[in-house]
Amino acid sequence: MKYVDEFREPQKAEALLQEIERLCQILGKPIKLMEVCGGHTHSIFKYGIEEVLPDTIELIHGPGCPVCVMPKGRLDDAIAISQHPNVIFTTFGDAMRVPGSTTSLLQAKAQGADIRMVYSPLDSLQIAKENPDKEIVFFALGFETTAPSTAFTILQAASAKIHNFSMFSNHVLVIPALEALLDNPDLQLDGFIGPGHVSMVIGTDPYQFISQQYHKPIVVSGFEPLDIFQSIWMLLQQLVENRCEVENQYNRIVETQGNIVAIEAIKEVFTVRENFDWRGLGDIPNSGLKIRPKYGQFDAELKFTIPNLKVADHKACKCGEILKGVLKPWECKVFGTACTPETPIGTCMVSSEGACAAYYKYGRLSKVAKKNIPEKSQVTISQKPLPACGNSR
């Protein structure tokens, strides 16, 4: 990839859209496709992709937002650690405002806890070096995308013999989550737009079970507009030809075997938890990562006493159903009213990858009928180059 404009050319988008329309006419039935990654959700809304697709295609938003799937109980545990005396608690910015059962990390910081936003776990390690009399804890969360950076940081801390540093591990795995979704009888899907960033680490081979056991096609996709259009076209082509395969649209970044060095680092530092509680999806076996006993000195769950309780979501919040793809954000009664980015009730409104945040940011506060959307020739994508995409974990 030399220039990002190559993936935002309106003429190519129009050509792909015409092919998508042709394939939809051949299929002659409604098609439901799930984009697993929250980064795809935001790209879809930012560029108005959903608005120009044929009426028969429905995009379902999946659970690929690591902050969104964090249950309240784990947030409460993080807050409890941050309130220990002599602790400096570090975290990514989008976890600061996620509400726990009674407060958030941002509110705990306002009440006196030493909580600092960092951009990587290495920033946390540097704080540990600069504050040898303090206990530094990093809030490690994310899918396989961010797990390697956590693993490499622990290996570096071990090599440097830094003893005042630990991780509160909440890393989760995408494959068990997809299995849980596919086993859900309430969710009937025709195919998956596979997560690009996760696949950059794990490769495409782990998705074979989707095509072989569940007979669903999946296309691993990039995040630019043409990436997403092409991935949808590839999925429809599979459906027309009655194929169920794992295809890689994002082959400029993703390799079949993934990143071997990153995978080995994860295996060295982490082991799989027997189960992990996901918001909306409940306990999923073998779906989380915990630090191996070999590196137990860097495990905050062993260093500190935490509540370790399951806490129910707010009754009015529908984040769980949204994460499962059962509901759209505008079907939640508090969406855009009591629940906004300034006053979030659920995680989907807080995270930069949350579906509710995407709907709110790009003006989808209610269901919009297709008949009220401008003709395709009037849509932004065919008139001028598209703006830049945001980043995604």
Short description:
With 393 residues, the chain is an alpha/beta fold. 34% of the residues lie in helices and 16% in strands.
Characterise the protein shown here.
The chain has 393 residues and is an alpha/beta fold. It is 34% helix and 16% strand. It is built from 15 helices and 13 strands. A five-stranded parallel beta sheet has the order 2-1-7-8-9. A four-stranded parallel beta sheet has the order 4-3-5-6, sandwiched between helices. Strands 10-13 form a two-stranded antiparallel ribbon. Helix 1 (10-27) packs parallel to helix 11 and helix 7 crosses helix 12. The longest helix has 18 residues, at 10-27. The radius of gyration is 21 Å and the shape is globular. The chain starts with 9 loop residues before the first helix and ends in a 32-residue tail after the last helix. Residues 369-393 have low confidence and may be disordered.
Describe this protein with a few key phrases.
disordered C terminus, five-stranded parallel β-sheet, 393 residues, alpha/beta, four-stranded parallel β-sheet
